[in-house]
Write a structure and sequence with these properties.
By secondary structure, the chain is α+β, with helices and mostly antiparallel strands. The chain contains two helices and four strands, in the order ββααββ.
């Protein structure tokens, strides 16, 4: 599966548009991470546990979007975007979306 943020795939022709595809996940904080985050707020620096958690969440959202595109029979996804939003004070949603296409 080719995944790009552009509206085209260089060197390929879009033969068919299969439509909108998306994948998402909601990740919640945990008490261990919150304690470490609180300490980092005092001394400063990157909160690596949260960075890792959000990276894993992005990868999961992209994987779910890719699966959605495969179900539609696509071999590429164009115009891909990632967004994050707060669902509650303790959880965030990560969504990946784009347009599924068949390219040659």
């Amino acid at each position: 599966m080719i995944i790009v943020t552009t509206d085209f795939v260089t060197g390929s022709t879009i033969k068919e548009v299969k439509g909108f595809v998306r994948g998402s996940t909601v990740q919640s904080k945990n008490i261990g991470r919150d304690i470490l985050a609180g300490l980092k707020n005092i001394v400063g620096g990157e909160i690596r546990d949260y960075t890792k958690m959000m990276d894993e969440a992005r990868q999961l959202a992209i994987a779910r979007m890719t699966e959605h595109a495969k179900e539609k029979g696509a071999n590429a996804i164009i115009a891909v975007r990632l967004e994050t939003s707060s669902v509650t004070s303790a959880a965030s949603e990560i969504i990946a979306y784009g347009t599924a296409v068949i390219i040659e």
